[in-house]
Each structure stands twice: as structure tokens, then as C-alpha cells.
Amino acid sequence: MHTAHSTTGWRQRALAVMPVGSSTNSKAPTLLPEEPEVIVRGHGCRVWDDRGREFLDYRCALGPVTLGYADPTVDAAIRAQLDDGILFGHPHPLETTTAELFCSLVPGAEAARFLKTGGEALAAVIRIARAHTGRDRVVQIGYNGWLNSLAAGARVLPGATTDAVPGVPAALAALHHAVEWEDRATLDRLFLTRGSEIALILIAADYPAIPEAAGFYRYLRDLADRHGALLAYDEMVTGFRVAIGGMAEATGVLPDLSVFGKGIANGMPLAVYCGRREVLGVLDRGEVVVTSTYGGETLSLAAATATMTAMRDRDVIARLLASGTRLQNGLNAVFAEAGSGIRLVGHPACPQFVGADAEVQAFLRAAFRHGLSFYRVVYVNAAHTEADIDETLRRAAFAVREATA
């Protein structure tokens, strides 16, 4: 079904009834009129807005779409389950079978449970860690969702920090410590003075630094072990994208707990919190209660099963790596040839534009004019073909010339 174009503008209508104009801050358009106000349809690696404009898409719903929009295998699984029901008053078998499949694919996942969003799953991990260790303090590296941006200096969005945390009591904020990527000096000092009080190190990968991240992850594993703290990975973006098992698989360093989501269900809402059964035992014993009516919702579980099976059997990760590498190398050559200071840096499955903000914004605006939908972090999906990447590079060459003129 196609949505007719609004004569008053979807952006204005949304702002009239909705703070920010979207329920997701990062989706609210900031580069109008070139940027779409709304997207009404997607297929494969392309999306269409309400005006009928077509875009080669590298947002992939901010990461969740790993196989492609309207993937027939996933859509068929959702439709088949829809005939049997969405939600029940007892567990559906999919809750167990999806967890079994997940644990068979993810290193270190001895047990798993489901929620809907990364923020709440990360909140569950923090509570579990505090209960297991009997300690209160949490060290957070990177963006761990709006729910857990509690410390002064924490990332309130992937690219934004805050010195104050309005809405968070000072006593709670004081128990959360925001530390920057690879800041080992601060971590050493923190553990020297507070090590016996720290329950958890929670880390989300810094996208540009992913290729060289293994050393930092080994350092964190050793630091946590020496002080009796737990280590948890925020794999919301990296899981089922950088590798099926995320940074645990990519680095070979296993965490005690982790959270997955986004790419696991090709766009359906699902988050997984998982880890060592001993640590998750606080849930079995009733010491910690984490529960949600919608945790076992069957359409998302059916989608996750289809997506994980496809990623396992079709070697989707290799496809993302190949397409992402072709795009990353090609765009960097386009930028260099045009004399632009922008570069696309990091792992090819989720690299990030770096450069002067004004220059990046000018390029993104011009890219929209040429039918390319980019975000600061660039996501490919399995539907991007070599021809799609080559077309993207041709369009990007025009866009960067316009942006630098």
C-alpha cells in the first residue's frame, strides 16, 4: 500500500503531534527538502518516499535490515505464523527453538532470553550484573541506549555526549562511569580506586576502531577478571553484522553477558540478552525479575529464526563484508579524487563517515539529491549487488562534486 503525499508536509504534521517528529531521534529528517520526510516502501536495497522518489538505501533502518527489505524468506515465516497467532498466555515453542538456534550460533551464549529493544535488554544486563556481584557501580564505554545514558559525560546518542543528565537523580548518575574508547589510563585509575565496587564493564564498539579492537577487548577482559567484575558486550549493531557472534566472535574474547538485536530479525522488533548460565542464574533463583508480556511475541521470533537460519546457511556475513568493502574502497577513492576531506572508516559492514561536520552534511544532502540514502554509519544488506554498489559510486561522484563546489 502506498501513502499519498501530504500537502502540508509529513514533517510539520509529525511535529504537531509528536516530540522530535519521530519516535526514533536518529530517523527525524534534518536535511530537507532533499532528504525524505517519510519512507513508505522498501524492497531489497531500495526505498521509496511518499513523493515516489527512489533511493539506494544504506540506512537499512539504522542497522536491522541485514537480508534486505521485504526478504521473501522472512516475510513467508511471518505470514505463516500470523495464521496461528501472535501472542499467547503461555510460551510458544518458537521461544525455545529460537533461543536454541541463537545459542548454537553465538560464542559464549549458554542461555538467552528475549525482550523488544536494546535499551531494556541492556538494563536487564546491568541489573543482573549488580545482583550477581553484589556491587553497584557500572562502567560504560560507548552508546548503550537512551535508557542507560546515566553518567555525566555519557553518550546520549551514538555521536553525542552530555555533561549533565536531566531527569536522572544525581545519586544514580554517580554510580555510572562513562569512559571513552581505549582510555586505559582512566580505566586503570577507576579500578584502582573503585575496583571492589564495580559490577560491570559494558562496552559498545567504536565503529571506526572495530578492525583494531581485539587488543582493547583483551585488556577489558583481563581488567574485569582481576577485579572480580563482569564484562558485557552491547552487540546491537555488531551482532549478526560484523560477525554472526558479533565482537565476541570477531575478537575471540568472550564476555560474561551480551545483548543482541537489530540484524537478528531483519527489522522485526527483538532483542536478546544472553551469556553465562551461572550469571543468568539470578533470574532462575528469583533474585532478579526481568519480564515482559511481549518477550515471546511470535512474529518477531519467526522472523529471527528465518533470519538467523539464512545468515548461517547463505554465508550472509561474507556477502556484507564483500559489498561493504567494495562500497568503502570506492567511496574513499571518490572522496580522494574530488579533494574531499571525508573518509569512510571502520569495519566494511558498518563503517562511519569521518571528517568536518559541515562537509559531511553537505555530502549527505547532495547524496539525497542523487537518490542515495546515507547515515553517518553506513549499512549494507545482502540485497546490495555489485551493480548496485557501482551505481552508488557513480551517483556519489556527482554528489561529492556538488558538495565541494
Give a description of the structure.
- The mean pLDDT is 94.
- The strands form 4 sheets. The protein has a 7-stranded mixed beta sheet with strand order 4-12-11-10-9-5-8, sandwiched between helices. A 4-stranded mixed beta sheet has the order 1-2-3-15.
- The protein contains 13 helices and 15 strands.
- Strand 9 (198-204), helix 7 (214-227) and strand 10 form a beta-alpha-beta unit.
- It folds into 2 domains: 10-62 and 315-404, Alpha-Beta Complex (Aspartate Aminotransferase, domain 1), CATH 3.90.1150.10; 72-313, Type I PLP-dependent aspartate aminotransferase-like (Major domain) (Aspartate Aminotransferase, domain 2), CATH 3.40.640.
- Helix 2 packs antiparallel against helix 10, helix 3 (93-105) packs parallel to helix 10 and helix 12 (357-369) packs across helix 13.
- The longest helix is centred in the last third of the chain and has 23 residues, at 316-338.
- The protein starts with 9 loop residues before the first helix and ends with a helix.
- It is of the alpha/beta class and 405 residues long.
